[in-house]
Amino acid sequence: MNKNSVLFLLFIFAITVTSCKKELSGVDTKKGKTLEIAPLNFEYLNTKSKIRFQNNDKNISVTATIRIKKDSIIWLSLSPALGIEAIRGVITQDSIKILNRLEREYLTHDFKSLSKKFNFDINFNLVQAMLLGDMPIPYATGDRVEKKNGNFIIHQEDGNLIVDNFIGANKMKTERVQLSENSSENTLTLLYDNFQSLSSLLIPYDNQIILNYKEGSEMRTTRIDIDHGKAEIADSSLKFPFNIPQKYDQK
C-alpha cells in the first residue's frame, strides 16, 4: 500500500453532520405525521471492519479498527495483512493526519487543500455519513421532498453540490445518497445496506462508496466497500492515540 493509495483512501473517508434526529417540517406521510429520519444518538462508537479499495489497477483490502466520537473525531488503524498496523489516521473537524508506519513518514492535510487536490468539495461531515448511513447535509427548510415508489427523496443544493437523499419508508433510514458537482462531471454515490440493531439504533453494516471523477480527459471510477463485522456503542470514553515519532519524515 503506497502513500498515494493511503492518501486517496483517507480522502474518501474524509469526504457527517450531527447524527441527531432530523424532523422535516411540512412534509406529511399518509398517516399525517411529520416525516422523521431514524436517529443515531451516541457519543462513542467502535467497529472492526473490512475495507476493499478498487481504483484502476489498484485493488487493496485491509482490516480496520474505527473509533468515533460523534461530530468530533474519527480514528482508524489499517492493517493489510497479519494484523500488523500499517496506517494510523485521525480525522477532525479541520484536518486529516496520517501516520504511515511502512514508509516511516506522516502526512497532514486540511480539507481546503484536499478539496483542491482532488477537485471535489470535502469536509468532515461526509465521513460519519459514509460510516454510519446518515444524510451528509442536514435538512433545511428550502429542501425539496417528494415521495416516490413508497420512499422519500430529499433534494438539496449546497454551494457547488447537488444532493439527493433516498430514505427507505420502512426503516426511515438513508439507503442511498447521490452527490454531484455543478462545475464538473464528478459524482459520489453512497449506498447503505444490511441494517442491524445496535443498542436500539439501526446502522448499516454494509456501506459502498462509488466516486466517478475526471482525471485529465478521462473519467475514472473508485469504489470502496466497508463491511462492519462488529460494532458497539462504548459505555465510556474511547482513546484516540496518535503520536508522530521523531524519526518520521513529513510528506
Structure report:
The protein has a single domain, classed as outer membrane lipoprotein receptor (LolB), chain A (Clam). It is 11% helix and 54% strand. The chain is built from 3 helices and 16 strands. The chain has a 14-stranded mixed beta sheet. It is globular. The two termini are 16 Å apart. The N terminus is likely disordered.
Number of strands: 16
**SSE arrangement, N to C:** HEEEEEEEEHHEEEEEEEE
Indicate the CATH topology: outer membrane lipoprotein receptor (LolB), chain A
The number of helical elements comes to 3
Low-confidence regions? 1-7, 14-33
CATH architecture: Clam
- How many domains is the backbone divided into? 1
Cα shape: globular
Overall mean pLDDT stands at 80
Key features?
single chain, 251 residues, 14-stranded mixed sheet, two-stranded antiparallel ribbon, 3 helices, 16 strands
